[in-house]
């Protein structure tokens, strides 16, 4: 590799490393972000063929003033908190398990990662089939464990639970991967040094494993939170927000406003409210990560 | 050095393959003598494309039916039309889309062409179908679509159960009238209860009560109208006093009472579940679109393929208004081939093509009077008799641009009622309030 | 000692494989469904024993005429190839540039660095639905609509946030002393990065590559809106095959989803060594 021999100053190197990504993102994102921000202050309709007309903060005011919208956000946040917490706990536990010697460890790992590899366009439809009360496999297997016939997607309480189960099934592998990567980044010599001091397993875990793995795991959590707040496919495929509107999430509302009601003004305003929530939550998590690093 | 060379070779190969595939794909899709029809992805679209091979043989113009997944069809079409795409010549659209398609000037008005073209005449279609599929605003005489896919919901029933002498006797004893395809909605309910209570079949009836898409509203509307209820006043666009009238409440409460004779999970039943329930022998009757008839009669998928009976949907105390589904066909305002598109449309409206559509295309549902009124029509498929009886009475709603928002309101609340989380009067009052709010904001009350 | 070691291994293996079975079950059910006839798929109750058939795969790859004859190929195969190309290039682009950028962010100081990093993260926060229309307009103006390059860029756009942040997390774990030690040995900064630091984060690179690949592979909405013929990816073709007049085509969905997941499983299998650090981890040169 000839280029490695070039004498690059730190200054040249640092910009060469970062500029491609930053310029690319700016170029791709600046117009969409600016345009959607502008649209959120208009009453633009996609299919009317008319130009957007400025209406000030009316979209935002309507969002703030509609309880139904807040309900959507509440469902979204409840969904996010519950799924991410459970995914992290289970994911971490499984990662710890996989960090040991196992028979067929690598095959097992490959297999346990498969849920997040399945095509989202159809897998949620398939889950709807699995949740069907009469010919679905979930109730059938549940029957073996004494569970009664549950019409999962027909009742508000169970519908949200069903969606969360599907989400957890799909994304725990992500957390497993992240946690494994985090656990693997702990240098062996630290454990060896601790063993010389005759430290207990618990001590090693608390004072070596966790502190070093946590920042990476937190980044995993950060991304899960950002993605969970945007949840759409799961809800759309399983219930489309039903029964009634008990499982409707924020992004579902954005989709309906944008592509069924063609009200891009409202849709983009909603998207920005969601963005603000994401930013707020992310900042909290990032602050935590930085504190860990200090 | 070897390593560097082989790495370069790999990178080069990858880049080359990228280039090749891009160019090849692009070449394959360049447009010349070819018409593109836009439709949703399902069997009728595939079968239409095959049927159009006849047209290609005649004229040499290739006809492709470009399809997108059903639940995203509106999304993709709105993006395509709003960006003035030149890749679509004709589109097959739900009657509800008339509003936004016409007001956005995305489709060509057909009046002049209809007058100028021999063989194309709006009298070839039932007047209600013309109004609902083709006219916007309704009653104005401005035509933008031709009726094409005249789907309507019919009653499917288990012939073996309805003809069973023991069951017939038991039913007569209990209800004092004959067990045959129900003529009224209350008959339907009686029979649903009867079958559920009997040992012959687990449940009485399957119908679409799902909150998704437009399922429950389109399933319930025929019941609403049969009881004398209505959604709104189409002229004034007022909802209060119509959707929550005493007749409407009665209709909704009746509809909800059907759920107890249906399989568990009925609150979520859409096309697939209703068809499956019959295929697997769970129910004695189902109300379902004629387009899905093959799901009932195809022996490779249906356990009761030999026992399927077809009947018109029941009537109510105040009338009979079968529900209107299906689509009309129109010409895109942005097509680069308007002349060819109209020539094709003229062929599609000809008796020759319509006979093909009715006779040879199993999933086709006709709207063409000259073919439907021949004696041969009912022999083409066993469900055509019921469909033909219903065609002149089909009724539709809401073709204004705001239909989607209005639909979400009824979807939510109707579904709440059958799920038991809202009571009928309350739900209908809520619908009136929410819909009027939407219509007021859209400027209809000024 | 050996005995205890073995039984512990057996126990943890048992638990691990039980969990694997739990997570893999839907995929197994999907695979089974792909070989069943519709009557078996929807049988009441569901059945694990059935007579296997290839009809779903036939329907997946070939268009079937009204008399049951094969009239041509469906879009599935062509879009499958598109998916492979777009995902391969997209992932390479994302991982390469993202890792470099992450290293830069980890080691150097930039003006408004935290804001810059947050901006990179924020590109992921807007729901695609909200931005897809402006992106559509942008692509139309740039001629990127319905092109492989356009889709590669789109996926890179969303994946950069992840690759930069995760790789930065890994780089932050490695003390700067490693580079200084290497540079004292005569390496330039760049050489130190590539020859000394990079090998230590192969876990991160493998995990990032896998996750970015999976995301691009399965993405649906962007492919639906931004492509129509040339660059359509398999998820769109698969979703289009779902609705049939006999009901939802569960068998075809199963077949398509199953075939579609195989390349990802193969990819994971190839990088499996890099996903978990070996238990006999070597010590870095210079220690």
Q: What do these coordinates show?
A:
The complex is a heterotrimer of chains A (294), B (446) and C (287). Chain A is an all-alpha fold and 294 residues long. Chain A is built from twelve helices and no strands. In chain A, α11 packs antiparallel against α12. Chain B contains 21 helices and nine strands. The relative contact order of chain B is 0.15. Chain B has helices at residues 2-28, 43-51, 53-59, 73-82, 98-103, 111-116, 127-134, 159-163, 165-175, 185-197, 215-226, 246-258, 271-279, 293-297, 338-348, 351-359, 369-372, 377-380, 384-390, 403-419, 424-441, and strands at 34-40, 62-68, 90-94, 146-149, 153-158, 203-206, 283-289, 308-311, 327-331. Chain C is mainly α and 287 residues long. Chain C has helices spanning 2-34, 38-41, 55-61, 76-107, 113-122, 128-142, 148-173, 177-184, 189-197, 202-218, 221-226, 234-240, 250-275; strands at residues 62-64, 70-73, 243-244, 247-248. A two-stranded antiparallel sheet of chain C has the order 1-2. A two-stranded antiparallel sheet of chain C has the order 3-4. The radius of gyration of chain C is 24 Å and the shape is globular. Classes of the chains: A mainly alpha (294), B alpha/beta (446), C mainly alpha (287). Chains A and C meet through α1, α3, α4, α5 and α7 of A and α1, α4, α5, α6 and α7 of C.
